[in-house]
Amino acid sequence: MQEIAILFDMDGVIAHTNPYHSKAFEAFFDKHHISYNLAQFEQHMYGKHNSYIMSHFFERKIEGDELLELEKEKEGLFRSIYAQHIEGIPGYVDFLKSIKQEKIKTAVATSAPRANMDLIVDGLNIRHMMDSFMSSEDVKKHKPDPEIYLSSAAKLNVPKEHCIVFEDSFSGVSAAINANMKVVGVLSSHSKSELPPCDFYISDYTEIKLPSLLNLID
């Protein structure tokens, strides 16, 4: 069998963290007297990098040291809120085990900070089942740019045409498409109509079996 890699985004794909990110941002924006609503969160938060989120809601460019300080504050809030609620998307861990039984390479490729990734990966006890980890600190360009997926494929030494990406956001799916990879849309945060066209869709990992996934690669 040709070598295949399966690349996972994290928020909304490995774990359903978006409600907890919303709580963290609510507390963060309240402290900074920034107005917000749920519709704005859905359009301008889910799947976006903090540089975009901060700049949008503060209505000015947030970058450099200021971005690092604000990001540290907000992500610290998220980790303190989510630490007692770590739980994978239904069926995820069992699905991951089935992948590793077939010796398929796997990776986490997230726009989240490394500390968030470490919290979730270790909270779910899946570190030993991943062959590559990339977070926001590891790339210069963020989704929808394909850098994180192309770099992950290179680290795994697997051609991009043999990679399958699991994503849940518009920018994430776009990044996978821009990398010329197959993409499974995880409908944890958005509906099919809110995402670019994917090769396959699931609500959770009880809805997919490995043979169906492998059929996506010619």
UniProtKB/TrEMBL annotation:
Pfam family, one: HAD_2
InterPro entries in the record: Beta-PGM-like, HAD-like_sf, HAD-SF_hydro_IA, HAD_2, HAD_sf, PGP-like_dom2
The keyword Magnesium is annotated on this UniProt entry: yes
Cofactor: Mg(2+)
Keyword Magnesium set for record: yes
Sorted UniProt keywords: Carbohydrate metabolism, Magnesium, Metal-binding
Signal peptide limits: none
Molecular function in Gene Ontology: catalytic activity; metal ion binding
NCBIfam families registered for this protein in UniProt: HAD-SF-IA-v3
Family: Belongs to the HAD-like hydrolase superfamily. CbbY/CbbZ/Gph/YieH family.
Name of this chain's protein: Haloacid dehalogenase superfamily, subfamily IA, variant 3 with third motif having DD or ED
Naturally occurring in which organism (per UniProt): Sphingobacterium nematocida
